[in-house]
Amino acid sequence: MLRRLTSPDRAAPAPTRRALLRGTAGLAAGAAATAALSGCGSTIAQGFTGGEPPADRLNFWNPFTGGDGARMVAMQEEYEKAHPGNSLKATTFVWGNPYYTKLSLATVGDRPPHVAIAHLSKLPVLARAGLLTELPAAALGRQGMTPDKFDAKPWRKSHVDDRLYGVPLDTHPFALYFRTDIAEKAGLLDGGELADIDGADKFADALRAAKEVTGAFGGSVASIKDSATQFRLFLSFYTQLGGRPLVADAGATVTVDLGAAEEALAYIRRLGEEKLIPTGVDGQAAITMLTTGKAGFLMDGVWQIIAVLDSGVKFDMRPLPRVFSDAPYACFADSHALVVPRQPRQDDDRLDMSLEFAASLLGSSKLWAEGGHIPAWLPTQRSAAYRELTPQSHYTEAAEGAAYDPVAWYGGAGSNLQINVGDAVTAALTGRQRPRAAAERIRDELRTLADVESPI
């Protein structure tokens, strides 16, 4: 994880008085942390203490570490080579709520970065809180970014109330990894490709066939210390069943479909009860089970691809199976987007500079795709170079079925919604709660979250 006048049609509505008051309180409470950050030369320290950057400086915030961080650094270097007259200062923060807290506070304090990464699951709340700049079509067009060049699903998700607030970089879905050697021994390959395993029984049968080969489990999925993974598994099946959004009215109203939730949870419980998947492994152990041959399949996010590649085992990937066909295909997914936080003084030159940087990162999308992300930039997604990238190009169609978190201030990447719902899913998987009781627990957890007033 790395780094003049405001036109009324450029920025979203200003934050409410309550948001400003809360932001001020947060700034005061974070004074000690700000002092510590200033010693590191962090741009957030500049946000709190003042000092406008030079006209040729571009401040960029993101939450990428590890392999994603290294790829983002390489993409930034490409921008710097092509724009030697500009000074890019990129800053990396801890992924999750701490990152979004810093971004919100810096924006409320009128010292935001010029460009930042945001998950599209977080974008509606940020935009409606007045923390993001609306991106005019003409400004994007000057950088060659037009709607026809973006994957439709993340492009639509980048809009809030028909206004564009983000430039989508990718889609990263929950997908299916499989060991090709185990699949072959289990009779699950057809002409070298994974056979059709869509359907509740067919997928369970495929796991059972793999289990016969491994002598342990058919598949693996993180089931402890990883509530988010359990949430992703549940939301995928729940949405395939045609379940209503879990919440509505920006999170104020709980609308979970208890019938669909119970059916999704019953299937997850079935997989655990029949010992087709483990019920007591964390994320790293779930990956290790695949790479050591104790499981033939792995259900996880595409961002784990490097860990599996590094193991050296023979594997491939496909979209998560369509276990239920009650609705159009769906699998959990989120997307990274480039956003322009609301600026205290935004002029056309500065906005063009920010969008020029965004366009440059899109131009390096093939490098980003190597880390598992499906490019939202169609010139890359449809290129021969991407099609030859395997197994990354084998699950591209999953982007069409992307099921994002429901819009709520307590939802999105790394949120309480994911944690609380995920914990209930784990309870069903492990047999601590019956599927119906776990579905009701999900409803009750959501009601508790919905009853809390939004801090922004």
Strand and helix layout:
Layout: H1 17-29, H2 31-38, H3 43-49, E1 57-62, H4 66-82, E2 87-92, H5 97-108, E3 115-119, H6 123-128, H7 137-141, H8 152-157, E4 159-160, E5 163-164, E6 167-168, E7 170-179, H9 180-185, E8 189-190, E9 193-194, H10 200-214, E10 219-220, H11 227-240, E11 247-248, E12 253-254, H12 258-273, H13 283-291, E13 297-301, H14 305-311, E14 315-319, E15 331-334, E16 336-339, H15 348-363, H16 365-369, E17 374-375, H17 378-381, H18 384-387, E18 402-403, H19 416-429, H20 435-450
Parallel strand pairs: 1-2, 1-3, 10-13, 15-18
Antiparallel strand pairs: 3-16, 4-5, 6-16, 7-13, 7-14, 7-15, 7-17, 8-9, 11-12
Helix pairs in contact: 2-3, 11-12, 11-19, 12-20, 19-20
What does this structure look like?
The protein is of the alpha+beta class. The protein is built from 20 helices and 18 strands. The chain starts with 16 loop residues before the first helix and ends in a 6-residue tail after the last helix. 44% of the residues lie in helices and 14% in strands. Helix 12 (258-273) crosses helix 20 (435-450). Helix 4 (66-82) links the parallel strand 1 (57-62) and strand 2 (87-92). The model is unreliable at 1-50 (pLDDT under 50). The longest helix has 17 residues, at 66-82.
